[in-house]
Amino acid sequence: MKPINSYIDHTLLKSTASIDDITTLCNEAMKYYFFSVCVNGYYVPLAEELLRDSKVKICTVVGFPLGAMSTRAKLFEAEDAIGYGADEVDMVMNLGLLKSGKLNSVETDIASVKNTIGIKVLKVIIETCYLTSEEISTASKIVESAGADYVKTSTGFGPKGASLDLISEIKKNVSSNMKIKASGGIRDFITARAYIDLGVSRIGTSSGIAIFNGEKSLL
C-alpha cells in the first residue's frame, strides 16, 4: 500500500472557514504531503498561490452541497474554478432528477461538467445517505457512463457519510477502471486503511493529520 497521506484530500468546506483557516490547511497539506486540499471555490485562488511551488493538488466543489442548481450554473462554477487553478472538481449529482427517473438528464449534467473541465479530474458525489440500494446502483452506473473519473460517496453535510458496505455496493456496479472516493466520518487510520484495502483510491477528510499520525504510531 502507498503511504496513507497520498490518498488524502485534506478538506475544509465549512461556510465559516476563514482565510487563516485555509492558509493553515494548505500549510498542513504541504507539511504532511497530502494528495490535495479540498476547498470551496472562493478559496481556489488563495490555495493556488500558497501551493504553487508544491506537489499538492487543488480540489474544489461544484453544485455543493445540494446539487440542485442548473447545469449552466454548474458549468460556470467549474470553469471559474479551473481558470483559477483547480486541478480536480467534486460535483454533486442532481439527486432530485435521479429520484424523478430523469436519468438522461442526470447523465447530461455530469457529462457537461466533464466536457468543460477536460483532462482535469471529475469526482461525482452521489450522497449515498439519501439513496436506496437500487438508486446507489443506478447513480454509480450513470457516473461512469457520463465519463467522470470517480464516484464519491458523500458531501459530509448529510446525516451519514461513507461505510464499507456502501463502497462494496458501488464497486459491484462499476468497472474496475472507475475510481471511488470515500468521504464523511473517516477520522482515524484504522478506518481509512479499511477503505483503502477495499479498493478506495481517495479519502476525503478533515482529519488527515490524525490519520497520518495513526499510521506513524503503528510503524
From TrEMBL:
<dbReference type="Pfam" id="PF01791">
    <property type="entry name" value="DeoC"/>
</dbReference>
<protein>
    <recommendedName>
        <fullName>Deoxyribose-phosphate aldolase</fullName>
        <ecNumber>4.1.2.4</ecNumber>
    </recommendedName>
</protein>
<dbReference type="InterPro" id="IPR013785">
    <property type="entry name" value="Aldolase_TIM"/>
</dbReference>
<dbReference type="GO" id="GO:0009264">
    <property type="term" value="P:deoxyribonucleotide catabolic process"/>
</dbReference>
<keyword id="KW-0963">Cytoplasm</keyword>
<keyword id="KW-0456">Lyase</keyword>
<dbReference type="GO" id="GO:0005737">
    <property type="term" value="C:cytoplasm"/>
</dbReference>
<dbReference type="InterPro" id="IPR011343">
    <property type="entry name" value="DeoC"/>
</dbReference>
<feature type="active site" description="Proton donor/acceptor">
    <location>
        <position position="181"/>
    </location>
</feature>
<dbReference type="InterPro" id="IPR002915">
    <property type="entry name" value="DeoC/FbaB/LacD_aldolase"/>
</dbReference>
<comment type="similarity">
    <text>Belongs to the DeoC/FbaB aldolase family. DeoC type 1 subfamily.</text>
</comment>
<feature type="active site" description="Schiff-base intermediate with acetaldehyde">
    <location>
        <position position="152"/>
    </location>
</feature>
<comment type="function">
    <text>Catalyzes a reversible aldol reaction between acetaldehyde and D-glyceraldehyde 3-phosphate to generate 2-deoxy-D-ribose 5-phosphate.</text>
</comment>
<dbReference type="InterPro" id="IPR028581">
    <property type="entry name" value="DeoC_typeI"/>
</dbReference>
<dbReference type="GO" id="GO:0004139">
    <property type="term" value="F:deoxyribose-phosphate aldolase activity"/>
</dbReference>
<dbReference type="GO" id="GO:0016052">
    <property type="term" value="P:carbohydrate catabolic process"/>
</dbReference>
<dbReference type="GO" id="GO:0006018">
    <property type="term" value="P:2-deoxyribose 1-phosphate catabolic process"/>
</dbReference>
<feature type="active site" description="Proton donor/acceptor">
    <location>
        <position position="90"/>
    </location>
</feature>
<comment type="pathway">
    <text>Carbohydrate degradation; 2-deoxy-D-ribose 1-phosphate degradation; D-glyceraldehyde 3-phosphate and acetaldehyde from 2-deoxy-alpha-D-ribose 1-phosphate: step 2/2.</text>
</comment>
<keyword id="KW-0704">Schiff base</keyword>
